[in-house]
Design brief:
By secondary structure, the protein is an all-alpha fold. The chain has five helices and no strands. The longest helix is centred in the middle third of the chain and has 22 residues.
């Protein structure tokens, strides 16, 4: 995949995330990865009762997000994570989401489900970075943790240990 394709994928995912934040899932009509407009689901679901398949880039990116969040969790819980550290954490989450999108090789149905989680990760990262008015940075961290919980519940990631929070 060329760098140009990766950039366009990231732009498209960011557009989806912004659309979801601004209009809600029902109003999102931007699609990513050759999906049909409006084909993105608005609610997570299992794949006929089973978790969705994952690939190495997805697992690696989600593990990196998990590790960063787990390392910051004590300070987040104690309400002692600095503004600068929240921004660093947000940039880490956003960067890993970009890597996931750039290297995505999931089938279209799994990919559509993943985008719901990625939108939550990006929304949480924006709040942690202080870009969301009237939303505490800590609330953004909670949103990211919730997205990780959803990933654990809906995607098959062997040997993954959910964050206890």
């Amino acid at each position: 995949m060329t760098a140009t394709n990766r950039i366009w994928k990231l732009v498209a995912l960011t557009s989806v995330a912004i659309s979801l934040v601004v209009t809600g899932p029902a109003g999102a009509e931007i699609s990513v990865h050759k999906h049909e407009p409006g084909a993105s689901p608005s609610k997570l679901k299992l794949n006929d009762g089973k978790k969705w398949a994952t690939d190495d880039p997805l697992r690696k990116g989600m593990e990196n997000i998990r590790a960063a969040m787990a390392a910051s969790l004590p300070a987040i819980h104690a309400n002692k994570l600095s503004t600068a550290k929240y921004s660093e954490l947000a940039q880490k989450v956003s960067g890993e989401v970009g890597g996931i999108v750039a290297n995505c090789k999931l089938d279209s149905q799994a990919d559509a489900q993943l985008h719901l989680i990625l939108a939550d990760l990006l929304s949480g990262a924006e709040a942690m970075e202080g870009k969301t008015k009237k939303t505490k940075r800590q609330t953004g961290a909670v949103k990211v943790l919730g997205a990780l919980d959803k990933y654990d519940a809906y995607f098959d990631h062997p040997d993954r240990k959910p964050i206890k929070h």
